[in-house]
Amino acid sequence: EVQLVESGGGLVQPGGSLRLSCVASGFTFSSYDMRWVRQAPGKGLEWVSVISSGGDITYYADSVKGRFTISRDNAKNTLYLQLNSLKTEDTAMYYCTHENYRGQGTQVTVSS
């Protein structure tokens, strides 16, 4: 059974930072690209970033490029998302995804 468990969200002021984690199980983590998506209140899912199975190739949505960094530790079956220079518009539930699976999400709220 595929399981994805996100953590690390919270309330942060504009300009602040957070590091999200996603622990994966139930599949061979190191064999798959992994993605982060987010959903702001009242809006649809937005793709944020993707990382290749080996971690050497990454892509970002224009809205987060230069501020967010995706990474992974295949030995720990864990995906990360470093969020820097946070803006109020980054407020959303953040999910890691594998194929059609996603976790329960972790809430990021950016507010002064």
Report on this structure.
This protein is mainly β and about 110 residues long. The chain has strands at about 5, 10, 20-25, 35-40, 45-50, 60, 70-75, 80-85, 90-100, 100, 105-110. The strands form two sheets. Strands 2, 4, 5, 6, 9, 10 and 11 form a seven-stranded mixed sheet that branches. Strands 1-3-8-7 form a four-stranded antiparallel sheet, with no helix packed on it. It is globular and about 40 Å long.
Q: The biggest beta sheet, please?
A: 7 strands, mixed
Estimated helix fraction? under 10%
Number of helical runs?
0
Characterize the overall form.
Answer: globular
Q: Could you state the order of secondary-structure elements as H and E?
A: EEEEEEEEEEE
Uncertain residue ranges? none
Mean of pLDDT: 97
Distance between the termini: 40 Å
Could you tell me the radius of gyration in angstroms? 13 Å
Q: Count of DSSP E strands? A: 11
Fraction of residues in β-strands: over 45%
Structural class: mainly beta
Outline of the structure:
The protein is an all-beta fold. The protein has strands at residues 3-7, 10-12, 18-25, 34-39, 45-51, 58-60, 68-73, 78-83, 92-98, 101-102, 106-110. It is globular.
